[in-house]
Amino acid sequence: MTVTGSPGSDRLRRVVDRIQGLPTLPAMLSSINRLMVNPRTSAKEIAQLISSDPAITSKVLRVVNSSFYGFPNRISTVTHAIVILGFNTIRSIVLSTSIFDALRKSQPSHGFDRAAFWRHSIGTGACSRVLARKLGFTALEEFFIAGLLHDVGKIALDSYLPEDFGKVVAKVREADITMLEAEEAVLGVNHADVGGWLLQKWSLSQGLVDAVARHHSPALAGENLKPAAIVHFGDMLARALQIGSGGDRRMPTLSDEAWTVLGIGTDSFPALLAEGSEEADRAMVFLEFAR
Amino acid sequence: MPLFPLDKVTPGMKTAAPVLDSGGMLLVREGAELTPELIERLRNRKVPAVDIFLGGSQPSSGTPLAVTDPDAAQAALAHAFEKANAHPVMKALFDAASERIRAGRKK
Q: How many CB pairs under 8 A join A and B?
């Protein structure tokens, strides 16, 4: 998804041009990415890099020792964590805790419940992870992060265009419609567009950008249709489980293209809801980074 | 925090979220006890529904992980799926989620 090439890109440009002073992600993330593309990089090298930042180190160890991963014995060093969980998982933990850290500093406006928002986001991350596992994907953390960040555009709008976003929140309450519908009516763009733009600005992967930017329109995600479909339906599962709130009270429209590409049956819903609920409970360890 | 249509709101209920008008102006703060005068004011400002606090933990700032009162959870679920249920897949999802609430399982 590119700002210049997407539908409604002029409207998106007009909105995001007014978003100033966005937080940046730590330089460590690009250093990790640089090390990871080199097949000769050792666990020790990445561990040394992460360990150079005590705040990030303590967050990584907090997450790897939580019930989200459920290891019976305590993991006390980053090297040990990398050996057990792998490079990708550790990078995902650094990325997600860094994003929480960047966004929690932004000022919330009135009327948008950030605590409920983050619970919904974590719930969607957990349900997306469960769906991805069911569909045979192995890079499960990518799906957790995509779900976790699917609504990040709302935080950007709430923090940097609070007057406009206040009108969106008021419209949702007044007309009892979805945030998506209210944003389109008030701003002419939606949080998915803005979220995709933000992740692109942060130089995150195209798969992640598409999954977030197209979580309400997976059919437009091109080669990333399946990841976008997983986040699209992960959002539905989290809403059906009533985990937190994305800011509205209505279910969004199901994408038939997403449903087809997922290839699951409705008889799997009880198990998916049960697994999603349990995984979301364990994933709430991430909430402490949003405070 | 179920959404109550304004005609179902009665004096003594407490708001679980701020009530805003269509211009974003605050009409009633979060945690306020609704009086007949306040309800009349909301009616005059054509507010269709209000988030009502049903007890348990604190409103908004301490939103529970999931709606824990089974009746409130079922009402909120039915409201969320009201239009979506026209799609058979969404109806199946609604039925599965309702069954979880009925079975009293941990959500």
A: 119
